[in-house]
Specification:
The protein is of the alpha+beta class. It has 6 helices and 26 strands. A 13-stranded antiparallel sheet has the order 5-1-7-8-9-6-2-3-4-17-16-15-10. Strands 14-11-12-13-26-25-24-18-22 form a 9-stranded antiparallel sheet. The chain is elongated, with a radius of gyration of 25 Å. The chain starts with a strand and ends in a 5-residue tail after the last strand.
């Protein structure tokens, strides 16, 4: 086995593949990365049985072959190789694999190729396509809202729901819910849904080039697995079992009080007050909504209090209401519009936060009872 490749190609590929290498493996082979050199490509695989990935990069292959190396050590040495190109070579019967670059040489012990659980294509019966940049945006606007600790397993994942030619990504921890929608292609017009672990989605976000607006991601799914295929990457993940709750019933359809304001100014004000809000028991921030303005405040019995007033277009009743400050800031970080709306129906009713120029994103938070 002998091939040569560019260091940068391999560094970038390993940043992706290493995410599917088991951190605390049940067996040592799961800490490895499988390499197969064939013709002009190097195929790399990692598999932790929850997520798995296949990625290919161009190489100059003199002799084909396959090998399994410790993923962590392989990545560490590749990063530190001194030259722009690296030459790899090893004998199939030997238990070492060599790397040379700019006068530096490394020999790594190999793992048994036959023991590595090669990535298999699971049986899936439904599919659709979505633009890669759109999928990244959907994930960015929802995955932060998944539950970190929750009795219901489905709350620990992000729900993909297909209705007609529309894809909705939904995440909730039962105190807040984020919903983002997008038009997709090549659906079979059969409604369907599945719940994906957040680690899989956060990994996917790292793969997408923000400047690549042409490529699509092909998504295939069944009741147990989902696969994502795009560019030179094939990724598969187990799904979280269970039925996602009927989230549409939670989103307010109207409001007794509507507040329109500048998102950047509002975020800055909430951020400022959060310095005190993070010192009280429930990270509580208070909104006092009056005609033409909103006063954002927080207090702590051990630190003090802070407040910030800002102008706002208020339609409807005045209202005083409190929230977990982090739940508000998370939504404001995810929103892209310059102007946003707050929809409120009472002191103890959920708030809907909307982007003024984007009807496809909704964020709902339940208030704190004070």
């Amino acid at each position: 086995m002998k091939f040569t490749c560019y260091k940068n190609d391999l560094v970038e590929a390993l940043q992706i593949v290493i995410r599917s290498v088991a951190v605390k493996p049940m067996t040592p082979i799961l800490s490895g990365i499988y390499l197969k050199a064939d013709e002009h490509a190097l195929e790399m695989q990692a598999n932790n049985f929850s997520t798995s990935i296949i990625l290919k990069i161009p190489v100059n292959t003199e002799v084909g072959g396959e090998v399994v190396l410790s993923g962590k050590k392989f990545q560490d040495f590749i990063r530190n190789m001194p030259d722009d190109t690296i030459t790899f070579f090893g004998e199939d019967a030997a238990n070492v694999f060599s790397m040379e670059s700019g006068g530096a040489q490394v020999e790594l012990l190999t793992m048994p190729v036959m023991d590595f659980p090669k990535v298999k294509t699971p049986d899936t019966d439904r599919s659709f396509r979505v633009r890669a940049t759109s999928l990244k945006n959907l994930i960015r606007k929802t995955v932060f809202a998944v539950a970190k600790e929750e009795e219901h397993p489905v709350f620990k994942g992000c729900c993909f729901e297909i209705v007609g030619n529309q894809l909705a990504l939904v995440a909730t921890n039962s105190h807040r819910i984020a919903i983002a929608k997008e038009i997709v292609r090549d659906t079979d017009d059969i409604p369907g849904s599945f719940v994906v672990p957040p680690e899989t989605l956060r990994g996917l976000m790292q793969y997408f080039d923000p400047n690549d607006v042409e490529n699509f991601v092909e998504i295939n799914y069944s009741y147990r697995y989902v696969t994502f295929r795009f560019s030179n990457i094939y990724m598969t993940s187990r799904l979280i079992e269970g039925d996602f709750p009927p989230y549409d019933q939670i989103v307010p359809s109207d409001a007794m009080t509507r507040v329109e304001l500048n998102k950047a100014e509002f975020r800055a004000a909430v951020d400022f007050v959060s310095l005190i809000a993070h010192e009280n028991e429930y990270n509580t921030v208070n909104f006092d909504i009056q005609p033409g303005r909103i006063n954002i405040s927080a207090d702590s019995p051990t630190v003090g209090e802070a407040s910030k007033k800002m102008e706002a277009d208020v339609m409807g009743d005045s209202l005083n209401i409190s929230f977990n400050v982090d739940y508000i800031l998370d939504a404001l970080r995810a929103m892209d519009s310059q102007r946003i709306q707050l929809w409120l129906n009472g002191r103890y009713d959920p708030i809907l936060i909307r982007e003024l120029d984007n009807e496809n994103y909704s964020y709902v938070v339940t208030p704190i009872r004070t």
